[in-house]
Specification:
This protein has 524 residues and is mostly helical. It folds into 3 domains: 12-136, HUPs (Rossmann fold, 3-Layer(aba) Sandwich), CATH 3.40.50.620; 145-338, Serine Threonine Protein Phosphatase 5, Tetratricopeptide repeat (Alpha Horseshoe), CATH 1.25.40.80; 350-515, DNA Cyclobutane Dipyrimidine Photolyase, subunit A, domain 3, CATH 1.10.579. 46% of the residues lie in helices and 5% in strands. The strands form 2 sheets. The protein has a 5-stranded parallel sheet with strand order 3-2-1-4-5, with helices on both faces.
Length: 524
């Protein structure tokens, strides 16, 4: 269905980006179909500025096409450029300039993007064409960037906990009057169980959406245009419409939220989905509003369906962490992207793009990532991210990989999580310490080590676990800096117990292992 466009010149060209698929967005709220046009464009640049995996490309393209069709069903005129249109310039700036030349709008309207690069490109088009660009707040979030900047002003440290408490109080989430439900703000201590030797039991199946005609068309296009890109589309079944996303939310609340908190940090070989929500992609595309997600979780607690620890832990990820990293991103860019506090310079190993490694935990997490475009937060922080941090990989290379392979990756949320939380590249602005551990952590939280040729208890020798070796080597390499961090005091005391000979042997083992790690593939 295609609605006729108003005759040129039009009043407003309303820009809708691929991660702004919300019919109630600020840019679309007052669109007049008699004189305004919604503009959307699929461009190669958005899949190649990083080497995007096929699952991520397909999700964005399919969701965009479904959303455009929804707008047209509502009677709104949409100027939509497909990736395979003959005249497609391949860039957002080029396509917007082409649309401006054809439609001659008097003004551009845009909900604030989630990506600094995109905002600068669109501002450049407005300047080049002499058009006013009206930039509107993204009402999808609980807070604005101005709110976060006001919160941050004058503080020596920025910490999630204080921002999270402020938002809970402001929005009345999990509150009894002025006090948090249950008498405490954080139930993290109750949310760190592993599955035990028996493994996960009776895990409900994930909510998956069989590809419809639009998605199948997109999958064929991705196979044709991006065959050399990493990953596979064989399992593609992500929600690509609001209706799909609402069903996924209902399924999570009903089936997995009660056990989410208890096992949110646990891992198990071959178990990709476990008790996690799998909603972050739908949230970041704006198919779901965080308010309705938080409200559904709180309602589950109030109704006795899910325990407080699970609900609080889940809500903290959305009302707390998601809002926090957005504030960090937009108050620190563009310089944040280049931070490298640990001066890490090693290349990303090539097997991050294939999963072909004999380290069992990494093989499982990366294989799963390439198959589904998904891994849960502990797999990202304490497996793939931890290894890169300990190895000393340049944080910008780790950032590019995460932005490439995960379907929920949009830069405002991915960059602070990767460069800040995972790689400590910002020197502690976002997180209070480097999150480092030996292979014993992975052994405690998973079954990976039982089938691995490496022993997490050994730091040297032929069976030494690379995580354990590089953990001690990391502490030694950054010893002066880490001794200034009070939260690293216990780990530094443990380092002090190593003899000089043990230190030398670990450093030699780390150098030998590092020398075997081939750099990333040329296409990455």
């Amino acid at each position: 269905m295609r609605n006729p466009l108003p005759a040129a010149p039009i009043r407003r060209l309303v820009v809708v980006l691929g991660d702004q698929l919300d019919a109630a967005s600020s840019a679309l709220q007052d669109l007049d179909p008699e004189q305004d046009v919604a503009w959307m464009a699929e461009v190669t640049e958005e899949s190649t500025h990083v080497w995007s995996a096929q699952q991520r490309i397909a999700l964005f393209l399919s969701a965009m096409r479904h959303f455009a069709a929804e707008l047209q069903t509502r009677g709104l005129p949409v100027h939509y450029t497909r990736l395979d249109d003959d005249a497609n310039t391949g860039t957002l700036a080029g396509e917007l300039q082409r649309a401006i030349a054809a439609l001659r709008p008097q003004q551009l309207v845009l909900t604030a993007p989630g990506d600094w690069r995109v905002l600068q490109a669109l501002r450049g088009v407005a300047a080049d064409t002499g058009l006013e660009l009206e930039l509107r707040d993204d009402m999808h979030f609980f807070s604005t960037v101005r709110d976060f900047a006001a919160h941050a002003k004058g503080r020596k440290q920025l910490r999630l906990e204080y921002w999270y408490r402020e938002l809970r109080q402001k929005h009345g989430v999990l509150m009894e009057g002025k006090q948090p439900v249950g008498g405490q703000w954080n139930f993290d201590a109750d949310n760190r169980e592993n599955f035990g030797k028996a493994g996960p039991q009776n895990v409900p199946p994930p909510h998956r959406v069989p590809p419809d005609a639009i998605t199948r068309e997109v999958i064929a296009l991705v196979h044709e245009r991006f065959a050399s890109h990493p990953g596979s589309l064989d399992s593609f079944a992500w929600p690509v419409t609001r209706a799909d996303a609402l069903q996924a939310l209902d399924a999570f609340i009903a089936q997995r939220l009660p056990q989410f908190g208890r096992y949110e940090d646990a891992m198990w070989s071959g178990e990709a989905w476990l008790y996690h929500s799998h909603l972050s992609a739908a949230l970041n595309l704006k198919l779901l509003n965080p308010r309705e997600v938080v409200a559904a979780a709180e309602s589950a607690y109030r109704g006795g369906h899910a325990p407080l620890a699970a609900v609080e832990g889940f809500i903290r990820q959305i009302l707390g962490w998601r809002e926090y990293v957005r504030g960090i991103y937009w108050t620190q860019m563009p310089g944040y992207l280049e931070r490298n506090a640990l001066e890490a310079q090693a290349p990303l190993p090539a097997w991050y793009w294939t999963g072909q490694t004999d380290m069992a935990c990494l093989k499982d997490a990366i294989t799963q990532t390439l198959q589904h475009g998904y891994a849960h937060h502990i797999q990202r922080l304490m497996v793939t991210g931890l290894y890169a941090l300990l190895l000393g990989v340049r944080p910008q290379a780790v950032h590019a990989w995460y932005l490439s392979v995960y379907v929920d990756a949009v830069e405002w949320v991915e960059l602070p999580n990767t460069l800040g939380m995972s790689q400590y590249g910002d020197g502690g602005l976002l997180g209070s310490k480097p999150y480092v551990a030996t292979g014993k952590y992975i052994q405690r939280m998973s079954n990976h080590c039982s089938g691995c040729r490496f022993d997490p208890a050994q730091s040297t020798g032929p069976k030494a676990c690379p995580f354990t070796t590089h953990y001690w080597d990391f502490l030694m390499r950054h010893e002066p800096l880490l001794r200034q961090n009070a939260r690293m005091a216990m780990q530094m005391k443990n380092l002090d117990r190593l003899t000089p000979d043990a230190r030398d042997a670990i450093a030699a083992q780390a150098r030998a292992h590092r020398a075997t790690q081939a750099p990333a593939l040329p296409g990455a």
